[in-house]
Amino acid sequence: MKKVLSGNSAAAYGSMLVRAEVISAYPITPQTKIVEKIADLIANGEFKTEFVKVESEHSAMAAAVSASLVGARTFTATSAQGLLLMHEILHWASASRTPIVMVNINRGLAPPWSVWADQTDSIAQRDTGWMQFYCESCQEVLDTMIQLYKVAEDKDVLLPAMLSEDAFLLSHTSEIVDIPDQEKVDDFLGTFDPEYKLDVNRPMSFGSLSMPHQYYYEFRYKIAEAMENAKNKIIEVERDFEKVFGRSYGGFLDLYRCDGADIVLVAAGSMSSTIRIAVDEMRDKGHKVGLARLRVFRPFPVEEFKKLAKDVKIIGVLDRSFCFGYEGAFFTEIKSALYNMDDRPLVKGYVVGIGGRDVTLDVIFEIIDDCMKTTDTKEESFKWIGLKG
Amino acid sequence: MPDDHEINYNSYKELPPSPIATGSSLVFKTGGWRTMRPIIDLEKCKKCGICWKYCPDVSIIIVEDLPKVDLDYCKGCGICANECPFDAIVMVEEESI
Questions:
Q1: Quick check: A158 contacting B, CB < 8 Å?
Q2: Distance set, CA A232 to CA A127, A361, B93 (Å)
Q3: Residue numbers of the domain that contains A92
């Protein structure tokens, strides 16, 4: 069935399609429509789920962790300040190995107040042990939600997953979305039935203490190992998803016209659509430019970047966030991934779109032009594009 | 943690996915954290149950209509003594008992 859905509505329909058994969420702009749409679906009798009304995002995540520990498939959604308030419990979720799926609407952090697209909120959660996915279209939001439950609930993974969409540019943009048949989704996902769960008939305490000489170290290693396991699982689920539903997003890196490219731009989220148009125009003029859309930030696709870098002269990285005191996070991490390569390409970093500043075609052309003008391959540059200076 | 409930693992591979303790608080008594102990004067008690209602750790138990402190779990917070309208509960230092 096809419907015209916004990125927010696609997330709400996604939670219904995966049959989320518990949803605990607190409304925040621009995520509010997800909560409202879920409430509509419940009120219409279309969606049977336990919706927990909570007093804050901290509580929303705490309720989600508890529900997941009982063995319930759990969903939540937030944005910006709300995600930051969840931060403590994000660590609880991953270390309790609860495969919660959360949609985060990427929004600028205050002050100054901003409700517009900016990825600093999710980048700031990099080290919480959550998988991180970035989407480009409403269809991808819906499809990725189905994929994420399959990856997260795998017994060799058991980690929570965050799906990010840019504020308004995706959360409030309506597109035609193909909603898959419920039976197909049911068959694809199966049910969530963890080996260890909160059960009154088999009492156990979760999240207990571990002394330095006991197993804290080992439990942390197990999270690191699970992230590694997730790499294969993400590829496997992407492949299986394509077989069943006929759609694919490239796994970790969504490569667009990268064959034979001298310059490849890397970006995540909605600006990728603009870059596709710029790439087409450059290719029409005979310039070998491509796009590698970063779809998964955690686990980080080191091997995929190494493979891409083999035949490329310059990688231009666009960060819609900034780690104060250093650089954009994507820029830093991509350079780190390529460091031990014998013949690595030049990597250039560009900060764009902070606080929802429009990333227009002109911005993209300026970046491509800057890459093309680079002759000194030893140069490593980093710029804020379009700064009023 | 009592030794007889500690399971020893030789490898991280044998561990459950997350830190899970078997047995719950039925096994792990937490009253040992207490420094102050509530003493109930049953002569003054009116059996109103306010102490039972306010105890955040379910450590006031009612035995034959009268409140009793469950010392296996009471942490000595003093909420019961503070809430009792008849001053029937006083907090006494553990070391003095």
A1: yes
A2: 20, 35, 59
A3: 2-245
